[in-house]
Amino acid sequence: MENSVKLDCRGVWKLYGPNPTAFLNKHGGNPDQDTMNKAQIIGAVRDANVQIHEGEIFVIMGLSGSGKSTLVRCLSRLVEPTAGHVEFEGRDLLSMPEAELIDVRRKKMGMVFQHFALLPHLTVLQNAAFPLDVQGVDRKTREARAHEMVELVGLKGRENYFPRQLSGGQQQRVGIARSLVAEPDLWFLDEPFSALDPLIRREMQDEFMRLQSMLRKTIIFITHDFDEAIRLADRIAVMKDGAIVQTATPEELILNPATDYVEEFTRHIPRAKVLRLATVMSPGAPEGNYAGDLQGGLSVADTVDQIEAESRPFRVINKNGEAIGTIDARTVIDVLIGRSGK
Amino acid sequence: MKFLARHILKGSRPFWLCLFGVTWVLSTYSFPLYKALDARWIIKFPKAWELQLDGWISAVMKWLVEDASFGLFSFRDLTRFISSLIEAPYQVVRSGLIDGFSTGQGQQAVEIAPSLSWIAIITILAALAFYAKDWVLAALVGGCFVYLAIFGQWESAMVTLASVIIAVPLGVVGGLLLGILAYLSPLAERMMRPVLDLMQTVPVFAYLVPILFLFGFGPVSALVATVIYAMPPMVRVSTVALQGVPTEIEEAGRMMGCSRRQMMWKVLVPSAMPTLMVGVNQVIMLSLNMVIIASMIGAGGLGYDVLTALRRLDIGGGIEAGLAIVALAIALDRLSQAFSTRTQDALPEPGLSYVKRHPWLVSVVLIMLGTGLAGLYLPAIQSYPESATLTTSAFWSDAMEWININFFDTFEAIKTFFLTYLLLPVKRFFSGVPWAWGIIAIGLAAWRVGGWKLGAMAALMALAIAASGLWAKAMITIYLCGVSVFLASVIGIPLGIWAGQNSRANSVIGAFIDTLQTLPSFVYLIPVVMLFRVGDFSAMIAVVLYALAPAVRYAAHGIREIEPEMIEAGKVSGCTKNQLLWRIKLPLATPSLLLGLNQTIMLALSMLVITALVGTRDLGQEVYIALTKANTGQGIIAGLAVAFIAITADRIVSAMARASRERLGLK
Ligand SMILES: Nc1ncnc2c1ncn2[C@@H]1O[C@H](COP(=O)(O)OP(=O)(O)O)[C@@H](O)[C@H]1O
Ligand SMILES: [Mg+2]
After folding, report:
1. What ipTM was estimated for this complex?
2. Would the CB of A114 count as within 6 Å of ligand 1?
3. pLDDT, tens only, A115-166
4. Is residue B224 part of a domain?
5. What is the pLDDT of residues B448-506, one digit of tens each?
6. Does residue A140 sit within a domain?
7. Is residue B178 domain-resident?
8. A88 and B CB contact within 8 Å
């Protein structure tokens, strides 16, 4: 049930340094690290390919300096890529004239920033209403709409505060309200919770999931925190030194890391929380008698007590109640201690 | 100072000793040499080689004013147009503050509306202060203006204030627009930078000469000069402020789909507002400074009072007007600073009535109208009754007389001491340097510090000064500036070090320095002339006072910025307090001290030109003479000569600072 591709990015490069375009052409559009070092060129993004599908949460993960921000800015054309193609809803974003680009950004895109990027001279309400103000929406309409958004992110009652009177978490809520006020289809979040304390960060992640379950946006979410990526993502792209090392679902990343680098990240992740029964089960309905039915979408961690308590295996079923596989205590234990390849 | 010298000379002592030795010998024996060889060119640049640039510039200016035309309109029309643009709002503000509105001319004038009453003006300013900060500031600002009323300076102060009120918006808006241009276009920024550099180093008097020539004597000329003088820092601050807006905010604006105009006016400029307000404060203070100086070309007001008092040696009147300037300066400075640090509270609840939401605005308007109406029947409400003014003039005259009678010998002794042991020897040294060697020596020194490019530039500038026939006067300027900077450093750096190490000292010294810096340069002349009369010594004192602030500030800053770990490391290795200061703190603070030195030199030069009023014989005098004769060429050339000295000094000291930062491994 593949959804349509919302944003399609192929062969995108972003090089910083003297004369990057000429440099890229000279080396056949694919220079290696050594040549770049010699020419004092920084490869912030190197040959990135991503397809983002309608309605998914696509997380770009990587350590600081790995090029995540630059990539997401290439996708929104906040920075001009040195080479490559970006298509948004089938339209070529990179050759779009300025007026059209402005229109696309006004109507279709929203972005949340790491350090909130609120306008210091505007109140919470005015900040949230600002995108509509820019579009020339009349004051009454835009403030009514901003009120809704401010309420949605849980800041009702603070409409007339200024940003500096709010805590970091509250400021980012305003940032979120602002990015959603124009009802964008594509929502960029560049490390939205990285500047917050760990406890607040969790709270904001839950809040984010709550919003997404209501709104169903197409999301590109940047983080350097693998836990966060796992928690939120439908799919994850792992970046290193400007290149995307692997793009996969959280489960695939854990089960089949493409490189040692990716594996290093997955090592400390509690696998039982990520892996679903449907992934770890053995195919085919149980032979003979079984203890009961379990949904394939449940995680191993959620079902482990139940499965362990029984000597008989369980039958795994899909949403329609059809049998799709078998799971028993041994498989679960394998997963928990990370014994086999599965 | 000695320490600084040692630090800078490190490693190249023989070079500097040689350079100094040769210069000293040539300086001492240049006159006998000229006599012996009968070669006058040694001490005086040959007349035949002089560039006659001043005559040429004067001719061009004359042509501009008399004949130049752009087809549809002449240059004269253009200046008239600018005049009328400025004149009209100036008259409105002046009428509103002091003159009242009337129709008709001269005898037939009929008043149609009075000016704002003095009570209303004080209320407005105090209310602004309260709005910007708190009751304390409101009391301070209100107090300053009540002082002006009680001590009979109201009218002059309002004339000055009217000029400031017109000049500041022009300076701010013009500066902001140019700053935006520089921010948007690197090309424009590259083209503007040297012009701004020059404008900030050309002495104020030099601005006045061509403007006087173009616009004639009167408030318009004064306003034009003020705006031109006060604008450059605003250009710089605007560019820096816009560049300082976090990238994320700019990106947020772009992602929300701002057009270019929305981006600038709805995102960037408001986000840069706190920094921009610092620039506004500077424009206000520079405008006040210049409005006072521009009384020489017809600004009137407090500056004119000081000027006439100085000319008549009216001690009491001078001090009174000077104190009024101080009161006005402090009020304007604190008020505009409060606006730049003002933090908004949450907005009032919408839905309240207009009066409830803006209680202050409403009451101020009521007071304005109320006192205006009441003033029609009770004149004392309209303008402060003359019979109730106090004058301190006699008091100050007596006080000064008393001081001069009782301490005459002491002051005389101090003056003689400085003249004999410091001023005259240094003067003799600099005046004696033959111009040819002077050019070479400056070139060599600059080369040694900053490479051959700097050396060539310094030598060329020195040559240009000599070729304009200004060598002797330039040497007097350098000598006076050098001595003053030396004294300012000797006094300022220890004060700064003390302030940097001791927070109590810091608050006292900081407040003192802040006040010194708010005062318009003119004010410094008054007490100095009263105590020491005219001459180089008086000029030197005024310059030292004016140029003290940066020496103190940067020294304190340099000491404070040292990493605590460095000092701890020193303590752990068993340094005594003295060793800690001399071996660790001072070497680490050197780059900062040098920056302070640079600023001190710049301020000293700008003040030095103004001290021409107390009878120095340097380039400042040359400009001043040009001003009184309205000789544009002479004024511009002499002004440029001062600018050249300033630029050379700036580049040399900056190069030293850079070198010392590199040596210390700081960035
Ligand atoms: N404007 C720029 N000029 C030069 N180098 C840049 C610029 N922006 C980013 N870089 C470099 O590109 C690399 C990737 O940066 P960034 O995308 O910000 O990483 P991340 O967001 O993953 O921390 C870094 O090495 C950074 O130094
Ligand atoms: Mg980043």
Report:
1. 0.88
2. no
3. 999 999 999 999 999 999 999 999 999 999 999 999 999 999 999 999 999 9
4. yes
5. 888 888 999 999 999 888 888 888 889 999 999 999 999 999 999 999 988 888 888 88
6. yes
7. yes
8. no
Whether B375 and B472 map to the same domain: the answer is no
Chain A segment 133-152 residues within 8 A of B by beta carbon are 133-135
User: Shortest CB distance from A134 goes to which of B246, B251, B258?
Assistant: B258
Test A115 with B248 for CB contact under 8 angstroms: yes
Rounded CA-CA distance B417/B428 in Å is 16
Local structure of A159: helix, strand or coil:
coil
User: Which tokens belong to A323?
Assistant: 């049998």
CB contact, 8 Å: A33 with chain B? no
Q: Cβ–Cβ of A121/B273 closer than 8 Å?
A: yes
| DSSP letters spanning B19-52 | HHHHHHHHHHHHHHHHHHHT-GGGTS--GGG---
Same structural domain for residues B458 and B365? no
Range of the domain at A309: 272-336
For residue B573, give the DSSP letter.
T
> Chain B contacts of A114, Cβ < 8 Å?
248
Using an 8 Å CB-CB cutoff, list chain A residues near B252: 111, 113, 117
Q: What domain range is B208 assigned to?
A: 88-101+114-343+356-388
**Quick one: A176 and A145 in the same domain?**
yes
**Which of B97-106, B445-454, B603-612 shows the lowest per-residue confidence on average (mean pLDDT)?**
B97-106
Atom 3 in ligand 1: residue holding the nearest Cα: A16
Q: Which ligand 1 atom lies nearest to the CA of residue A17?
A: 4
CATH of the domain at A316: 3.10.580.10
Answer for the pair B502, B581: CB distance below 8 angstroms, yes or no. no
User: What's the whole-model pTM score?
Assistant: 0.84
User: pLDDT value at position A73?
Assistant: 94
Shortest CA distance to A244 belongs to which of A70, A62, A51, A17? A62
Number of domains in chain B: 2
Q: Compare CB distances from A102 to B248, B259, B346 and report the shortest one's residue.
A: B259
Shortest CA distance from A113: residue in chain B: B248
- Pairs from B190-196 (Cβ < 8 Å, separation ≥ 24): B192/B235, B196/B232, B196/B235, B196/B236
Q: Return the higher-pLDDT residue of A80 and B598.
A: A80
